[in-house]
Amino acid sequence: MRIVTWNINGVKARMGAMMKWLEDVKPDIVCLQEIKVVDEEFPRLEIEAMGYNVETFGQKSWNGVAILSKNRFDEVTRGLPGDDGDEQSRLIEGVFSTESGAIRVCCIYLPNGNPVKTDKFTYKLGWMDRLITYVEGRLALEEPFVLLGDFNIIPAAIDATFPDKWVGDAAYRPESAERWRALLNMGLVDAQRAVSDEPNHTFWDFKTFGWDRQDGIRIDHLLLSPQAADRLQDVFVHREVRGWDKPSDHVPVEGTFLF
């Protein structure tokens, strides 16, 4: 089973690239972030025509997440518990049956958090605290669980071409790193680091011409429960997509599993 995370940075703007990539690669499950449309405006019919089941948790102009799956959804969860006043669409989760049993896939778009000296950073840290509580409950189920998406977290210096330039950024702050480590210390496995010590960056900024200068960072991650990690075969970063016409600033990151 091939499970992918991709911050699409606006599904309307990236429709051509997304449809081409889905047709070429044909992954089993694709988790999208920053779809930037309400549920009714998501291109459901076009994607369903390619053999995918579609569930969305959209938001106008900002945020929004979706899961496309060739397997039918057994369950769908929308939204991160713990704050009834949180109106941002940043989490959607699906449970799927396979010949080897069920798998739970949770797609997240973790807050950016910048500028640091604002409520945006407070929101990021609070969201991560709520995520830690959520994951604790999911791990207690002792089932294959894949938590994936745009985490807006640079875990270590190797995950940035020029790490010094990110010092002070919300993605590289010690408070953010502390919560990232908390997720790993709970038993989640960083899939990319489980298979490779290479940088394997996933994001190149538009504003600073990051792709042209090959100035990237790794902020799109797959974190696995022990039961999912046992089934991991490989992780592949689809770098080539960043060089396509009208690309997202992120590229698809694919995990391959024995299910």
Task: Describe the model.
With 259 residues, this protein is of the alpha+beta class. It is built from seven helices and 14 strands. It has a six-stranded mixed β-sheet. It has a six-stranded mixed β-sheet with strand order 5-6-7-8-12-9. Strands 10-11 form a two-stranded antiparallel ribbon. α3 runs parallel beside α4. The longest helix is centred in the middle third of the chain and has 21 residues. The radius of gyration is 17 Å and the shape is globular.
List keywords for this structure.
single chain; 259 residues; alpha+beta; six-stranded mixed sheet; 7 helices
Write the layout of secondary structure elements.
Elements: E1 2-7, H1 15-25, E2 29-33, H2 44-48, E3 53-57, E4 65-69, E5 73-78, E6 91-98, E7 101-109, H3 119-139, E8 145-150, H4 174-185, E9 189-190, H5 191-195, E10 203-204, H6 210-213, E11 216-217, E12 220-224, H7 226-229, E13 232-237, E14 253-257
Parallel strand pairs: 1-2, 7-8
Antiparallel strand pairs: 1-14, 2-4, 3-4, 5-6, 6-7, 8-12, 9-12, 10-11, 13-14
Sum this structure up briefly:
24% of the residues lie in helices and 28% in strands. With 259 residues, the protein is of the alpha+beta class.
